[in-house]
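Human: My hope is that you can spare some time for a protein that puzzles me. I am handing you a single protein, as its sequence and its fold in token form. Could you go through the record with me and say what the backbone is doing? Take your time, and here it is.
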Amino acid sequence: MTLILASFTFMIIVGMVLSGYYLLATESEATQRLRAMVPHLVTQQRTKRSGLRLPFISAILSTVGQYGLGSDDGTLRQALSIAGFRGRNGALLFVGARTILSVGPAIAFLAMNVASDRPMGRAILMTIGVFVYAHVLVNYWLKRRGRNRMRAITIGLPDSLDLMVVCLEAGLGLNATIARVGEERSAMNDALGQEFALVSLELREGRSREDSLRALGERNGVEDLKSLSALIIQSDRLGASMAKTLRSHADVLRTKRRQRAEEAARKLPIKMLFPLALLILPPLFVMTCGPAMLKLKDLAGFLSHKKMH
């Protein structure tokens, strides 16, 4: 049993090492063509990974994801889309990575416990605990990344609208404005700029503006972005002035951003109450009342000793 577990752990480690090698040594032709066409869309990936992709590790994760723990239902796909992970095999890749990151440490932990001749029942229970903890941790990381991305999009939306208003008043059309804003803000590693750049690519491919804008709101899960998409579609249908519409909507979003900041500021005293009561007041109480308590203890001991004599 120990030999089987050790062999399986060795295979997992070897697979990780080979995946890291292919991560640093391979590059896809599609990535090269995309960089030649729209270099600003792959600037972030090139900075982080030097423009490299993961064919070997992607194949492994996809295979594991087909038989992995979990499913690639619509809820998971929506969560991955909100977090910025998209693609045909995005759900399979995530399920495979989650399975490896949860099952791998659990098997390694079980192998170490078996090799140490610890009780099998306790080792199995602790292994299950390690698996559940790793599984929940991966899901929490995905949700946290999605929340951070949604917050970044919500905060940067008024500034992007101001830039769109400037471009529209300068004489650019709506499609050219979206492309310009996407190009400028995606160069600053901005999530909203990357979304506008993706909308611009969809418009160039022939997708209708209405469908592209509706998809922009749906795939990010940001209510302000959904309302913006609906407002642009309605203004485009009615023939209203797009610059005035976006300027007024930017003022509304800026007001909402200020209100959210004020709400967070009002919540701050309540949030500070618990660390204040648990971490600051007890040491302060010990420092101020400790010497007096020691004096009282010595006095009580002295009085009891005197009474005995």
Q: What stands out?
A: Residues 141 and 302 are 60 Å apart (CA to CA). Residues 42-54 have pLDDT under 50 and may be disordered.
